[in-house]
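User: Predict the structure for this protein chain, please.
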Amino acid sequence: MQHQWTGGQLKRLSKCLRDGLEPRGDVPDYGEVMVFYNDVAVHVEQQIDEIDWPELLGGVRPKVTSRAKSIDTLREKLQREPTTPLPSVQDVAGVRFEADMTLAEQDKVVQQLVGAFGAGCTVRDLRKEPHSGYRAVHIWLRLPVRAELQVRTQLQGAWANMYESAADVFGREIRYGHMPEDDASANLVEQMHALSLDRIVTLEKSRNEVQQLEISHGRSSQFLQTLMPGPKGERIADEVAQLRGTLHRVRELLRKQEEATTEEMVVLKRRFDTMREERKG
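Assistant: Here is the predicted structure, written as structure tokens:
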């Protein structure tokens, strides 16, 4: 996929968008440019869909979506970063990959995607360096235009959707580290940050550790039964089975806590959406 515009033309379009000017002369039409960016995003989505994800994720099918930035959000970004022209904006073409997966599985997904799209990828692990509470792994793709691929667990995705709705109410600046002026709103934003950085981090790490223990003890059980046949091996196998049962109960408890946390975020998102609509009215 190749576009027909020069870097200079796209930079001039950036200035028109940022300053609210009507494109003239050889400045390309915004709609045509966005159609191309959207086609790039769709192409990336289609490539991702061709990978056998249930095999990698234990039967889980991911939710993959794509989009090109709207003119309003693109203008906001160009105004916020006036020295960054359109060709250098990483996420004009965006794709999201979301699945019910552990942190270790998220790492495997990222490795698979980097392998699929080539060595020119840049990985940004926002789990290690969260941004205003936001956690995910982003992959920057170098295609005919830049594209961003966001890889999220189910909890990370639910939190991001909730926070996006909150930004529509409290101001999009909260996505960039700025707090609302009134104390009540600022306190709520801080609570959302804590939800991501404390509770969700703890849940995801715990689930990941349980999964790794289950895998480890499953392998140990098979090895010990082969190494020590007879009553002694059977006794060890029984002990491992009891431990596996304990791990299963812990995993189910974590699953219920994840479901409750997800529902809490869904309810908050609906509340923010309602507040936004009421303000419009």
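The chain has two domains: 7-153, 183-280.
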